[in-house]
Amino acid sequence: MYNVFDFIWNLASFVVALGILVTVHEYGHYWVAKKNNVKVERFSIGFGTPIWRKTDRHGTEFVIALIPLGGYVKMLDERVDDVAESLKPLAFNNKTVYQRIAIIAAGPLANFLFAIFAFYLMFLIGVPSVKPIVGEVAPSSIVEESGIPVGVEIKSIAGERTLDWADVNLALIGNMGESEVPVATKATESVSERVYNLNLTDWKIDADEGSAVHSIGFVPYRPKVITTVTNVIEGSAAEIAGVKVGDRLVAINGQQFTDDWDGFSKEIRTFPNQKVIITVLRNDTLVHLSATPKATVVNGVEVGQLGVYPTIEPYPEEYRIEITYGIGGALVQALARTWELTTLSFEMIVKLITGDVSVKNLSGPIAIAQGAGNSAEVGLVYFFGFLALISINLGIINILPLPVLDGGHLVYYLIELLTGKPVPEKVQEIGFRFGAIALLGLMSIAIFNDLTRL
Fold this sequence. Notes:
By secondary structure, the chain is α+β, with helices and mostly antiparallel strands.
């Protein structure tokens, strides 16, 4: 039941997010086309059978279609349909090359403008977050080799201020490929303020290792997790065994795990579909319960799942922050964050080509759906941040010089601008086929990566 709900929530969030971003993108094309006196025949969100349609007084049909995986703006074009003589001045192909460039470029531009708007709302409302306090350092990691101790706060990386772990993650990714990067830390009672150097010479991010923060060896501070049960999943092995909210999990088959949630959860995973004796402390009395953890597959391995949630102690108040700005400051930060993520995305594309970043890091619609669901579940402000990030990526993807994308069309128009004549239709057709194959290949890799992470 839980997995079905999770799937439906992620799917619904994905449809909403994609619908917003596609509408923004296509509206960019539509608005500039109308400003240049091009007749727009259809504005469609989604593909396939229309589930809603309306035609305005200008003859433009607005459609919401059944398959919510994109959209399009269909403009009057002599290369596609027969056009009456009286309507030829309204055809896209009869506009100047500058007008056509403006119309095509307006889609990706709208995505970048929307990202600024979404980030603006995010910073204006305020983003609850926590300071980047080092909780642990992974053994034999780059961080351990640098000497950065546990308990310090990361203040900056390569001169870039780091307010929270999201900033740390972005700074690390942005400096990938550098030989050495300085990390400034804040003084604590036991450790003085100091700058450490991370050796990134051979560092590459692997999607299997999680974020850049974890890949390099940082383990962010997390509040203690204790074994007192806060929720029992309906129909789970725990509910069948009689575990109740408020029980403190003490032992498995006599092995003690009092207030050691990590140890308890690791041990229970070794008993898929096997009967165990769970000892709980209930109202100061030890109770022994017989349970059979349900088998579930995680990363291709069958593990046991009891079906309970532990108690997580609250963050210390001094570790909490809220990143918020006034009307002017929020705009400055929105512009800066959009620029930072745009340049970082282009750098990542280059690093994918050079091999500094593995193709395992490519994500497809499944990962995007999970991201949409997770951000929407956490709160509206995080959903705005997610929308901004995906909007930037959608804008960047569309300006890549693949003929099937907006960027490919722009390349053709720039060639026309330089040569004074349009690229031959046969050449364009070959380019479109090549672009479709390349795009299909990239999407196949991304979807394969998504499936392997499930």
